[in-house]
Structure formats: structure tokens, C-alpha cells
Amino acid sequence: MSALRTWVAAAVLCAVAPGIAWSTDWELSADMRLVDSDGQRSLFDGGFGALQYDREHDGVQVGRLRAAISQPLGDVWAVKVDASYFGQDEQHPLGVTEAYLEYRPYPIDGWRTRVRIGAYYPPVSLEDTASGWSSPYTLSNSALNSWLGEEVRAIGVEGQLEWLGTRLGHDFDLGMTGAIFGWNEPAGTVVGTGGFSLNDFQTSIPQGYVGGRGAAAFPEQPIFHEIDGHEGFYVGTDARYLDRVTLLALHYDNRANPTAVDLAGNEAWDTHFNSAGVQVDVGGGWTAIVQWLAGTTAVVYSGDAYSYPFHARFALISREWGRNTVSARYDVFGIESNAEYDLSAEEGHAWTVAYIFNQSLRWRFALEWLHVTSDSAARVVVLDEPAYARENQTQLSVRYTIGSGR
Amino acid sequence: MLLGSAVPVVAGTISVQANLANHEPFAGAVVTVRADGAHAPSAPISAILDQINLTFVPDIVVIPVGSTVEFPNSDSVSHQIYSFSPTKRFQLPLYHGKPYPPVHFDQAGVVTLGCNIHDRMVGYIVVTDAAYFGRTDGHGTWSVTNVPRGTYHVSLWHPLLRDPAASLERDVSITGDESATATVQLAQSLRPAPLPATARSRDAY
Fold first, then answer.
1. Chain B interface, mutation test: which of A166, A363, A365, most B Cβ atoms within 10 Å?
2. ipTM score here?
3. Of A35, A91, B170, B173, which sees the most CB atoms within 10 A?
């Protein structure tokens, strides 16, 4: 009964105080690209190119159409939904990339908890810190975070505990995160059979896929399925020194049974990885980020066990001044393979340079050049083409955003 | 600001010069001056601490005990202000504009403010029962005139200080119309100042 009275009182307070912002926060944005690319057929079109746009998909492209909503439910609960259409995913006009219920109470004596229930990214990326899990530094994500966008999402429950030391006169904040999730057992399919790519694509939930339609060399791969009934988990920690240095580490394991196959023929991939990163912000708008990720994905197919250790890391340096941001990033990525012909073995590295001009809260202009060099066994085994490829992509992006905070 | 009527009416000046460890002026330091013995604290005031571009403006407010502070939110995004400092625990549920009445501060001490939505936001309210108070200017100086005869304890405070509090206190005496100066030279460098909000932080995920 007292809870009912609290809700009634809250509703009355909300009604009589219009500035109390239990109103909906929302954003709509359209990001159009002008692309020049000499890339091979991309993963999204069923090939083994490492770029988002191949030579068949340059010119004017839809980068991303996005709709996001955050609806407070009382003071410390909120529902957040982020949906996007990416030009590559022609079958899904608008797909949900994240959707969760968040409980974020006020801190007590320096301690704060947060709970998320739904579908969300594990706290791995130091790069994708802008709205819609996008990068404020470049148009294309690093290979590491591109892979997260393609294949990794937790659909479950996450808890976080933070110690806000800086609010107590100390120099550090510390945090711990843990989650139990399901529906991510195909994670590993793309890296295990298609390889790494550098893009800003995010596979939608629950029906999203990566890959080409029909008889593509790299056929479509559904990502978010529960196949064997085993829940996965991740645990992570973070530490911050004032607002200058952030350390992040996480262990992810989808605990899939690699022999499991569902009725539609989708295989469970046993995928686990460790990730760590450091971000340093200094005066003058300078930021440096280094991230590292290494893991293994394994599957049993027709009685044969396949295992693919993989790794990805990058270093990024960026300077923001006024409305301008210039960033440069170096990526290294690789996949080993125990399969015959080393199917899917890959080694590659990439350079990315980007300039972003935030003309206003609504208009953003960006120019990015991306060069990637890679050796991919799949090109030889599946396509009978050379393993080695040098690919270049230049993008000009114009993004317009409206919303409650714009 | 006047002391109690029992204090002899002799007007002096108390000046404070604060220097950083590198001997540059220490601007923005909070100075409080207490009389040795009983004195009347300054009269309560009504202050405003705004929120602009994901920043508390000003970053520090100094108020006498019994004062009130209003917390308008001038940003287009909502904020959720809290303090878990023992001096004053309070919460202002998610809002923008000026929906809430001013908050009353009836106990001396430092109140650290945060926003439960934007963790980078931090602000401070210094609630003081001192007779005189203020912040040092760009030259690291602060002064008060018309100070009656007596002995005074001068204290310096700032959220970025690393020096122990005891090393930041000075005693000065006013015996006539002269000026007494308290000089505080920091031994340790300050913590790095919070980075300013940028287009990137305003577009945070």
C-alpha cells in the first residue's frame, strides 16, 4: 500500500511540476555517405573483403538511419531502445541494436549500483562512446569493435557496482560488472568463417545477420540465437584516475556447446575472449586509446572439431579542438585455424585517418580514409583468388540529427 | 559583514596571498576567516548554482550556514543532482529548468555535488560559519576590510588540493588600522583540473 501511495505521489508531482523530466528523450538521425572504394566483395555482400564498402558499393550510400528513445519510468528506472537501418542490411529496414530496462539508483556513501535487463553491449569498447554506440573519432570502427558490433550482444541481466572515490576526495573510481546472458551462441561464426572487417555496422536483434544472400561465398549468418540452453557470462572491471585515465578489462564466455545445432541448422560456437583497454585524456583535447582482445571460437561440424584462436588490437590518437576532431588509428588483427587448408586463417593490419567537424548539435561532417592489408586463406580456398589484398576506402559523411536534446 | 556589537570598532584589513607549488598565483581557492572566540557568522544568502554544458556553474559556491541554493538546469538535457556528503544529503530527481525550490544548508562543511546521469559533472558547495569568506582572484589574492581588532584563523580550501589541511591554516592579528597578510605557499602541486566538456562529451553514449 505504501508503494502505491509512493507511485500516486510521484504521478501527482510529475503532473504539477512540468520541468521534472520524466518525459521521453529521443533522437532521429540520418547519416549519408559518399564512398570511393577499391575493396573486394565485403562480408555484407558475401565476400571476404575487409572493408564496409566494396568496389561494387561506392558512390552515394546510406550510412545509418537511427531512431533512439529513452523513457524514464519514475526517477531511477528507464527503458532505452536504439534502432537503426544500415545500408548493408537490405532485408531489415529498421533493426533494434540495443533495448533494455535500466535501474540506476542514486549513490549511497560513494557506492552506486546499476542493473540492465534486456539486450546491450558488454562494456568492452573504449572507442564507441558516442550516441548509438558509435565512435566520436572515426566513421569506421576498429577491427576489434567492428567484430563486437557484428557478433556480440548480451541478452540477459547485467549488474554493476561502482565506488565513486573521486566524490569522496580520492583520485580513483573503481567498478565491477557481471552479467548472465543467452541468445549469443552463434557469436564466433563471422570471425571463424568470414574474418575481420572494419565497419560501423551493428547486427540487429533478434533477426539480424551478417553475410550475403543466396549462394554467396560467405553466406548469411544469423547471430542472436539460443541453441543449447546454456547461459553465458561475462565479468569485468574498470578503474579511472580522475577524468584522465580509464582502464577496462573483461572476460566473456558464451559457454556454448560446440556440438549443438538447432532445428534450422544453426550451430553453436563456443566463444570466449579476454579484452583490456586503456584510455588517456590529457589537456588540450588529446586522447589516446589502446585496446586488446584475444580469444578462441570453436565449432563441431560433421563430426570434425574446428578451433579458431583470434586476436585484434588497435592504438588510436585523437585531438579535439573546438568543433574539430582529427584521429589516427592503427589496427592489427588475426585468426589462426586448425582446419584443413587453414580455412579462415587471416592476418591483417589497417591504418585509418579521420577528420570530423561537428558544425552544431545537429550537423556533423566527416571525412575518413582507411587502408587495410590482409592475408586471408578463405580467398584461396573458397574463391580461388590470391590470399593477399590491399584495400582502400574513402568516405565523406553528412549526418543530421534531431531530438529532444538537440 | 560585521561582527557582534561587543567587538571594539577598530577597522583593519586582512589579506591573503595564495601561491601554487610552482609559485604561480593560486586562483579560485576558498578562503574562510574565523575570529578567535565567539563571533556572529555571516547572514544567510540565496545563491544559484546553474548547470550549463554539462558543467556546474560556478564550480564552487561558498555560502554561510543557513543559506539556500537554487539549482536551475539550463541544459537541454535532463540532470539528476545528488549529494551523499554528510554535510547535506539530498537528491533532485531528473529535471530541467527550475522545478524545485531552493535547498537549505544548515550545517557547516563541504558538499560534493554530482549528476547521476553525467558522471563527469562535479561541483562543490562550501557551507561556512566563518565571519568572512571568499575566493582568491587571478593574482591569488583575497582581502577583507573593516575587520575589528582581534585574532583570526585563516583557512584555505580547494577540491584539487593535495597539501594537508593543517598546512593551509594561518593566524593573523588585527590590532589597529593596519593590514595583516597571510601567505599560503603550497608544497604540492594540485590534482589535474577536470577536463572541460566538449562536443564529444556532450554526445556521450
1. A166
2. 0.86
3. A35
